[in-house]
Specification:
Elements (H helix, E strand, L loop, with lengths): L1 E2 H10 L5 E3 L6 H7 L6 E3 L3 H15 L4 E5 L3 H12 L8 E6 L10 H16 L3 E4 L6 H14 L2 E6 L4 E2 L17 H11 L5 E4 L3 H11 L7 E4 L7 H9 L6 E6 H6 L3 H8 L4 E7 L2 E2 L5 E2 L7 H7 L4 E5 L5 H10 L4 E6 L14 H9 L3
Parallel strand pairs: 1-8, 2-3, 2-4, 4-5, 5-7, 6-7, 9-10, 9-11, 11-12, 12-16, 15-16
Antiparallel strand pairs: 13-14
This protein binds thiamine diphosphate.
């Protein structure tokens, strides 16, 4: 195990003091630590942007930036990593800290097992040297690796498994709290009761999928068919678009603000291509709650103006618990493309399970048309 503060102190000594990335539960303590370093830290909307931001930082300072991400975000990062920072293109040095979900030997979810198994191979293919940090002693290897990055002007990486980075200093364990009363599950429970029988529900990565799945397990409603985006964060809306253009039934995308922003360009496709049956329900808690509650930077965004400017017809806002049913009914009745922003507080259902048997889930969904 490595104390988070110690790692950052070490990086500072190595003159690495600019950080950008997308949060991950494995790196939760690092996020908390960085929260106080406003000037030196920026959360981008996706991992490709983090790499690009880091490249920009290097170009302007000649200093090595640090990019952090979950290994599933390597998919987003790969384009600028290959096409800009690669040794044979612009040769840009940087240090990546990668949360290693699904590392061999560690029990994890199917989507993480797939990526976890090939994470080292991906880095090898990209010619990115890495160290696996397990304890303080490994910092020596990291020192050498950073030197290699500087001398050869190339990206290098740290792989961190779950529970390696620890925090014995509770001072920087801050929780964001938003003062209103709605919880995600309150809305989902009512939604399932009032939708039409053949409605298709597509839920985003993290707690939204898990809560929808858990509420289904209680068998309180048999209306609607679900598809859970256990991975592919940020793509639930455009996947819903794909479904909605091929069915007459209502298609509701249950999105999160982090996910909504991750591939924001999708709303342009939705505005252009979607039909009346496309409904976008955005659970906005201003944070990446599923991985620790880090900010998504959506606080200054005028969501209504944004979506209307790309062709959505209606925008609704739900803030009060007593209005849930009414607002949902109006949202479902009005033709799409439309978006209902639900301001939710942090907090999820207790003992939250995860969708199991994904092939069965897919079969049920496919056969529901
Ligand atoms: C490409 C990618 N990057 C990062 C993650 C890790 N991750 C899983 S859920 C999540 C937060 C999602 O935030 P939001 O959409 O706002 O939903 P909330 O967690 O608040 O319900 C993150 C960052 C991931 N699964 N995939």
């Amino acid at each position: 195990m490595i104390e988070t503060k110690k790692l950052f102190k070490f990086l500072k000594k190595e003159k690495i003091d600019f950080f950008t990335g997308v949060p991950d539960s494995v790196l939760k303590t690092a996020s908390s630590f960085l929260e106080s370093k406003k000037e030196k830290h920026f959360i981008t909307t996706n991992e490709g942007s983090s790499i690009a931001m880091a490249i920009g930082y290097y170009l302007a300072t000649k200093k090595i930036p640090c990019v952090y991400m979950q290994n599933s975000g390597l998919g987003n990062a790969i384009n600028p990593l290959i096409s800009i920072s690669h040794k044979k293109v612009y040769s840009i040095p940087m240090l990546m800290i990668i949360g290693w979900r699904g590392a061999p030997g560690i029990k994890d979810e199917p989507q993480h097992n797939v990526k976890g198994k090939i994470t080292k191979s991906i880095l090898k293919l990209l010619n990115i040297k890495y160290v696996i940090l397990n304890n303080d002693k490994d910092l020596k290897k990291l020192k050498k690796l950073i030197k290699f990055s500087k001398i050869n002007s190339v990206p290098v990486a740290i792989l961190l498994k779950r529970n390696i980075l620890i925090n014995n200093n509770s001072k920087f364990q801050k929780k964001i709290s938003i003062s209103n009363k709605i919880q995600r599950c309150d809305v989902i429970e009512i939604l399932l009761k009032i939708i039409k029988k053949n409605t298709k529900l597509i839920a985003t990565t993290g707690f939204t999928s898990r809560e929808l799945n858990q509420i289904r397990a209680k068998k309180k409603s048999n209306k609607g068919n679900d598809f859970y985006m256990v991975g592919g964060m940020g793509h639930s809306s455009v996947l819903s678009l794909g479904v909605s253009t091929k069915t007459k039934h209502d298609v509701i995308c249950l999105d999160g603000d982090g996910s909504f922003l991750m591939h924001l360009g999708s709303i342009v496709s939705i505005g252009k291509k979607s039909r009346k049956n496309f409904k976008h329900l955005l659970f906005n808690n201003f944070s990446h709650e599923s991985v620790g509650g880090q900010s998504t930077n959506i606080d200054k965004v005028n969501i209504e103006k944004l979506i209307k400017s790309v062709g959505y017809k209606y925008y609704f806002l739900l803030k009060k618990k007593r209005e849930i049913k009414n607002k949902l009914k109006i949202f479902l009745k009005k033709p799409g493309p439309s978006l209902l922003e639900v301001r939710i507080k942090m907090g999820s259902m207790k003992d939250l399970s995860r969708p199991k048997n994904l092939i069965k889930i897919k079969k049920n969904f496919v056969n529901s048309f």
